[in-house]
Amino acid sequence: SYFILTVATLPFLIYVAFKNPALIGKFFMAGLFFVPLFAVVEYIALRQHQWYFDGQYIGTVTMMGYVFPFEELFFWILMSSTIVLAYYENFVDDGR
Questions:
Q1: Which of 6, 38, 46, 78 could lock onto 66 through a cystine, CB 3.0 to 4.6 A?
Q2: Could you report how far apart the first and last alpha carbons of the chain are, in Å?
Q3: Per-residue pLDDT for 2 more than 80?
């Protein structure tokens, strides 16, 4: 499922960034805002046992004593806000 997510989102993010290079700074600033928030949500959810990861993954990341998949770090914490912004900028905002 992460492979499908990668194929569906990362090329589109790169396309939007090359189509309008001014958006790269906006995407970066939004990422700087959301990454700490998503990391805190991840930490609290793992600490409160709201979710757990017991499958096979590309790799694991340890954050403050809690282990979670690398895919969670990459797709959810780092990339989700920029991917949503890329879709928004391309389909809704329409260059405004």
A1: 46
A2: 34
A3: no
Collapsing DSSP to helix, strand or coil, 55 comes out as coil
pLDDT at 39: 94
Residue 57 CB partners (closer than 8 Å, separation 6+) = 69, 70, 71
- What are the structure tokens assigned to 74, written together? 């990459």
Give the span between the Cα atoms of 58 and 67, in whole angstroms: 13
Give the max Cα distance, the chain: 44
Give residue 33's identity as a one-letter amino acid code: F
Task: In whole angstroms, give the CA distance from residue 38 to residue 3.
Answer: 21
The first and second tokens of residue 55, run together, are: 């499958």
Instruction: Kindly report, residue by residue over 9-65, the tens digit of the pLDDT.
Output: 888 888 888 988 998 999 999 999 999 999 999 999 999 999 888 888 888 999 889
pTM for the complete prediction?
0.80
